[in-house]
Amino acid sequence: MVKWRKFLSKLTLTFFLFAQIAGFVFLFPPKLESANLTSVSDTISNNRLSFRGELEGAVAASSGVIALDTTPENSNNTSSGSASLMENDSIRVGAGSTATVTTVKTIENATRVILAAGLTNAASDADPVVSTVSAIHTVSLTPVSTIPNGAFRVLIPAATDSMTGDGLPDKTGFDVVTGSLPSVSCTGGGAGYTFETGTATRSATTVSGTNFHSFECLYRGNGGTGTAVIMTIGTPSGNKLINPAPASTTRFPGAADSYTFRVRQTEGTAGSYAVADETLGTLGVVEAVRVTATVAPTLTFHLTPLTTASTACGVNPDIDTTVNSVPLGTITSSAFTDAAHMLVISTNASGGYSVTASESGALSLGGLGTTTIPDTTCDGGGCTVTTAAEWNTPSSSTGKGFGYALQDINGDSVTTALEYNNGATFKARPFGTTAQQIMSSSTIAADDSAYVCYRIVVSGSQQAGDYQNYVIYIATATF
């Protein structure tokens, strides 16, 4: 019994001593030599994959169509089709100095691409096809250690082969152009940081078998914690990092390729800039999502009637028009009779539109074409179907007949030389049986408008009766 009590006493003492030692360890843990920077991120201005493939078959000079090899022989070319390409991408086709740089016009399918311009030089089977995507990297980090006169260093994965630095996209990392590295700048951190001009070094270091480009900002000051530091690598108009091409031909399109980057805070000169704190992050690059849609071509054209309360071409109409008629009524030999329509046109055609006007023939008695009211030649006989001239004197012997003037309403749809007030009071011309352009545009148009102002006056010897003809307007869009 005594032995049993001694055993329990020794066991209790052992547990007590263990608890004291363990408590000391938990209360006073060993000091860590490195800490994690917080709130670390790398925001890429464009996270699209670059494209690196090769031709399936030779392509002749001047050809504007290429085929892509989906099982490339060269391991540097990782295209599994056109998934990484987009229309209007700049694309380089061919090898070396004979390569052609042009633009993607249309992507017909996974292997067939139409170019905006034909190849300058012929290209051979398996020649490279490259489309580069570059991006600015904005790295954010928050220091957790106060380190005077140190530096912040960002390591971004580089290719593991000799291709790095050639300015072409790689499948194992981000690339740069040797001799034209992106600029580096740092801001933030609070009062403890005064940053010097940043530096970039291609393939500066290798960690665990991975090459890294190094981007670094040295700083003067006592340092600080809790305030974000921002490192910007590249500028909108300057050099940038080149995004990788797909890492494998067997990857599933839409699944991002991931790359691990490292963000470090280093000691100052006294510590030979040894790493003090470090955090790892992940970058993802993926194909852009190609969205396609078709907008149907449209063209609308209509005539709007004007009333006597309107003003067109500087005069008030004498009669009201309708959508499809100009009832000039009883006309005289001593005064003009005026009427007008407004023409309105809209189209989404990239090449714009043209509106022409013509007549079925001169106004004729009973519409039979035998006895007619002549087409005007304006004052002094100065106008023709193609040339406008002043027509402001109803008593002029040469100005009898039927004609029209034009007024642009909301743009440049009517040529200035044909407008009614271009150096005249009422500049007009006759309709002809051959269509003449009266409105036009070389771009997409929304409700372009113009007035067509009809005018008639006859001689005193004009035979009595009812006269008629047809004016034909044709609107044509250029898609």
- Beta-strand residue fraction: 35-45%
- By secondary-structure content and strand pairing, the structural class works out as mainly beta
Through-space gap between termini: 109 Å
Order of strands, widest sheet: 2-7-4-5-6-3
Question: What does the overall shape look like?
Answer: elongated
Can you give the mean pLDDT? 87
**Unreliable sequence segments:** 1-34
Described by strand count, sense and barrel closure, the largest sheet is: 6 strands, antiparallel
Helix content: under 10%
The tally of beta strands, per DSSP, is: 30
Radius of gyration: 40 Å
What's the number of domains? 3
What is this structure, in a nutshell?
By secondary structure, the chain is mainly beta.
